[in-house]
Design a protein that fits this description.
The complex is a heterodimer of chains A (482) and B (443). By secondary structure, chain A is α/β, with parallel strands linked by helices. Helix content of chain A is 28%, strand content 29%. Chain A has 12 helices and 20 strands. Chain A has an 8-stranded parallel beta sheet, with helices on one face. A 6-stranded parallel barrel of chain A has the order 9-11-14-17-15-12. Chain A starts with a helix and ends in a 6-residue tail after the last helix. Chain B is α/β, with parallel strands linked by helices and 443 residues long. In chain B, 23% of the residues lie in helices and 37% in strands. A 10-stranded mixed beta sheet of chain B has the order 2-1-5-8-10-12-14-16-18-20, covered by helices on one side. In chain B, strands 3, 4, 6, 7, 9, 11, 13, 15, 17 and 19 form a 10-stranded mixed beta sheet that branches. Classes of the chains: A alpha/beta (482), B alpha/beta (443). At the A-B interface, β18, β19 and β20 of A face β19 and β20 of B.
């Protein structure tokens, strides 16, 4: 399986070498948000009337909402009228002409991650002129999925090809008016991924946005919808470990997962967007709404995330445990360095009987970074014998950083058992000393200890991701101690 | 949502104020209260507690006629056979006949706040309303505006008061609902020690509102043991704020027991403002029927080498609801901190609800902080163990529930209080007589 993946990966990577951008500059709409903009986006995507109306409804509701301020974040005012909501990828002329023009620090990171030169160019946004037919790659990949009956395509494609499925499930987990950023996304989302796993099918490979065809411009408002029909199984990987250059500062994605009876969804994310420079200038705002709905009995949704990038992260992948015996899991490693801020966590809403949830959150905060775990475990009256275990640990590196924990527990059922544990400390001097007196360099020792600290989460990641994530962690925290 | 505050304002105008030196602070506190009004559940600090029942009711804040209680009624809430310094307040008004303030150690001040206010005392002026921030809670502002009766304690340098200071706030039903605003100020000078017990007791099923504020100022090396026993009537509302400012190496031990009241909110705010300061907070809440009990604590570690330990436990029955929110804030540059917090809850009924939120906010790195929260029911294995030894189910449940509470009560070093609390807790459980038998056999 692993080798298989690598092959596909290698092939797809090859594709990047030769550029992915098409010149659709004429499509770019002027900055500003109005009903016309939305109508324009919808028309561009040749969407059916119901979807346009759905977008407009979300927009009208969004107008009545205010930026959320409850998170432990310091967010500069965002001017929503200054954003272009249908921006085609930046033209080649705007990007750096060659790697020489790219921030040397970024290149250094690529070097350390062992990313091939050609791909470095692609990631850094260097225009590469070449024509290459990617059809062959796509065909091998797609035929295998098609044989299994799995639908894996861009969201726009799904709207055209599978309107009934989209109509049935879109907004059923994250309603259009759910929160400020979700409403904004619902109004203006441009593209994203759509996955449908039919009854009883075990998806033959790990699905990844990395492999997805036409993935280069999902834009800042991405929409993902994954439906696992009865007794099916899918593992989905999002993001990649290499830092991506991106011109858009605000990212407000929505991810909806639906697991029907006996179905299982495993969703893994590695997020390493541009975090801004050492002084906290620039960087991506990552405001994501992710929610999974364990709709059927015995279903399971598992979130695993490694968050190392972005200047500001606002993200709470959640599970609604509706079906009896359903299971929700959340494994997270979040690393903030320099002036990064993260307010992240999860919500586990227990509704069905015998529902179980596990939350393991590991936060590492270095230099001037501020990080918060914010979680909710809610046991409804109907959730007999519900069980939750939560552990959130924070590691502090440097006397200027902050780590905060805000867990909410609401229990309304006397048969429920909820446990929450949290600790905050710095790397123990004795641990460091132990390693160093055995001839391990301080930096390596810190790496080792940090990796040990995160092990519980890394082991939940698919193999290839786990190896890369470890490497990534080391790089992100480079020089944070000592 | 805004409520009519006019009767508070008109009562304020009628209030007898014999303290010109304090009038400015009163007025500004009232203005603040007028401005903010009662907190709404949209505010994070009041998210789970709706104070509309208090806001809606027109409580009288002025007590024209004194309510009296018989010796027997007061004796029932006293510590039998315990020699203590005692202040008794009936419906918010100090009652000299029932109080014992004789032979105080030299230079110790223990008196009714209303008397202290009449004199322009420099020490009082320096401390009163300086340790409880009116802005933190509108209830504190309201209390400050209405300060009259209460307890003023000053323990001078190197003085240890051996006898516990027992403060009884007794409330008895009146013709119409009334509000009392007891205000306590405890000033502990260097190297002083004292034990203070604040009890809030409803004598009958009166409909009233107690809005208490206690300020504690601990100088270097001072030690205060503070007990709060809340047994208000089941028709009463209780809001209590304890505010502590710590000096170097000072220590506060706080024990808070909440058993009564229909809507109760207890706040503790501790500022560890000097090195070596320490606070220990123990809390127990037992609720039943439709009671709502909210415990909020906040500890600010402002200086290095400060310590906090917190342990709160709740037993919920009936349709009751309890809220716990424990906040630990480690401020910038406050290194070498240890802060531990724990909240355990036992849900005995399917209609009960617990909302707990232990919080850590940490801005320094050389810290050891932890918190834990649990919600659960009685352990099936333990129940089975007892059942297999021929103890019937109900008794077994009561015993285990008692054991859960006793983990906190056994932390209380002051024996008479511990015994009294054990009795009170057992009294709330079914099969009280049987459990007493079991526990007495043990001891």
């Amino acid at each position: 399986m692993a080798t298989n993946n690598e092959n596909v990966e290698a092939l797809v990577r090859k594709d990047y070498e030769h550029g992915f951008f098409t010149d659709i500059e004429s499509d770019t709409v002027a900055p500003g948000l109005s009903e016309e903009t939305i109508a324009f986006i919808s028309a561009k995507k040749e969407e059916p009337q119901w979807l346009l109306e759905w977008r407009l409804k979300a927009y009208r509701h969004w107008l009545t909402m205010k930026d959320p301020t409850w998170a432990h974040l310091d967010i500069e005012h965002i001017d929503y009228q200054a954003i272009s909501y249908y921006s085609a990828p930046k033209s080649k002329d705007d990007g750096p002409k060659s790697l020489d023009e790219v921030d040397p620090k970024l290149l250094e990171t690529y070097e350390k991650l062992g990313i091939p030169l050609q791909e470095q160019m692609m990631l850094a946004g260097v225009a590469v002129d070449a024509v290459f037919d990617s059809v062959s790659v796509a065909t091998t990949f797609k035929s295998k999925l098609a044989d299994a009956g799995v639908i894996f395509c861009s969201f726009s494609e799904a709207v055209t090809k599978y309107p009934e499925l989209v109509k049935k499930y879109l907004g059923s987990v994250v309603p259009a008016a759910d929160n400020f950023f979700a409403a904004l996304n619902s109004a203006v989302f441009t593209d994203g991924s759509f996955v449908y796993i039919p009854k009883g099918v075990r998806c033959p490979m790990e699905l990844s946005t990395y492999f997805r065809i036409n993935a280069s411009n999902t834009g800042q408002f991405e929409r993902t919808l994954i439906i696992a029909d009865e007794a099916s199984h899918v593992s989905y990987l999002e993001g990649c470990t290499a830092p991506m250059r991106d011109e858009n500062q605000l990212h407000a994605a929505v991810v909806e997962l639906v697991a029907l009876e006996d179905a299982q969804i495993k969703y893994s994310t590695v997020q390493n967007w541009y975090p801004g420079d050492e002084n906290g200038k620039g960087g991506i705002y990552n405001f994501v709404t992710k929610r999974g709905d364990c709709r059927g009995d015995n279903s399971k949704i598992s979130w695993t995330q490694v968050e190392t990038g972005s200047a500001i992260t606002w993200k709470y992948p959640s599970c609604i445990l509706k079906g009896d015996n359903s299971v929700g899991e959340f494994y997270s490693v979040a690393v903030t360095n320099n002036h990064q801020q993260a307010d992240t966590g999860t919500k586990m809403i227990h509704i069905g009987k015998n529902t179980r949830s596990t939350i393991i959150s590991k936060g590492i905060s270095a230099r001037h970074a501020q990080q918060s775990y914010r979680g909710l475990v809610k046991i409804s009256k109907s959730a007999d014998n519900a069980r939750n275990y939560t552990q959130c640990d924070s590691l502090l590196m440097g006397d200027q950083c902050g780590a905060h924990t805000f867990p909410y527990i609401e229990a309304k059922n006397s048969t429920a058992t909820v446990e929450h544990e949290a600790t905050t400390s710095k790397i123990g001097d004795d641990q460091l000393f132990y390693c160093m007196q055995r001839g391990i360099k301080e930096e390596d020792a810190v790496n080792m200890i940090v990796n040990g600290f995160c092990k519980e989460v890394f082991k939940e990641l698919p193999m290839e991701f786990a190896v890369e994530a470890q490497k990534l962690l080391g790089i992100t925290l480079e020089g944070a101690v000592g | 949502m805004s409520f009519d505050l006019d009767h508070y304002i008109s009562d304020f105008d009628q209030l007898q104020k014999n303290d010109n030196w304090f009038s400015e602070q009163r007025q500004s506190a009232l203005n603040l209260f007028k401005e903010t009004g009662f907190p709404s559940s949209r505010q994070e600090d009041w998210r789970y507690t709706d104070v509309r029942p208090i806001a809606k009711k027109k409580f009288s804040n002025i007590h024209e006629h004194a309510i009296s209680l018989s010796n027997k009624e007061v004796d029932a809430v006293r510590f039998q056979g315990l020699d203590c310094i005692e202040l008794v307040f009936i419906n918010g008004v100090f009652c000299k006949e029932h109080s014992h303030l004789d032979d105080l150690p030299a230079n110790v001040i223990i008196e009714n706040m209303a008397d202290a206010l009449k004199e322009d005392d420099a020490l009082l002026a320096k401390h009163l309303a300086h340790h409880a921030d009116n802005k933190i809670s509108p209830f504190t502002a309201l209390n400050t505006a209405f300060i009259q009766h209460g307890t003023y304690i000053h323990v001078p340098k190197n003085t240890v008061i051996e006898k516990p200071i027992n403060i009884l706030y007794l409330s008895k039903a009146d013709k119409s609902p009334f509000a009392t605003h007891p205000r306590n100020l405890i000033i502990m000078a260097e190297h002083s020690e004292a034990t203070v017990i604040e009890s809030y007791v409803g004598i009958d099923d009166g409909d009233y509102f107690t809005n208490a504020v206690t300020e504690v100022a601990l100088s270097a090396d001072a030690i205060l043991k503070h007990y709060k026993v809340q047994q208000e009537s089941l028709n009463a509302y209780h809001v209590g704020n304890l505010n502590v400012v710590h000096g170097k190496n000072s220590k506060l031990e706080s024990h808070s027991i909440s058993l009564g009241g229909s809507l109760v909110r207890n706040d503790i705010h501790s500022q560890l403002a000097a090195e070596g300061a320490e606070i220990v907070m123990n809390g127990l809440y037992m609720t039943t029927d439709k009671q709502h009990v909210d415990n909020h604590t906040r500890v600010d570690h402002l200086k290095p080498n400060t310590f906090s330990t917190e342990n709160y436990r709740g037993i919920l029955n009936g349709k009751s609801r309890a809220v716990f929110n424990g906040k630990v804030i480690v401020h910038k540059d406050a290194q070498k901190i240890e802060a531990h917090q724990n909240n355990a809850n036992l849900l005995l009924s399917n209609d009960a609800e617990i909302d707990t939120k232990p919080e850590l906010e940490i801005y320094a790195d050389d810290v050891k902080c932890s918190h834990g929260a649990t919600v659960g029911q009685l352990d099936q294995n333990m129940l089975f163990y007892l059942r297999s030894r021929a103890i019937d189910e109900e008794t077994a449940r009561s015993l285990l529930t008692y054991a859960f509470a006793d983990e906190l009560i056994s932390n209380i070093s002051f024996i008479p209080i511990r015994n009294r609390l054990e009795r009170l807790v057992i009294g709330q459980l079914p099969d009280a007589a049987l459990i007493r038998e079991f526990t007495n056999e043990q001891s």
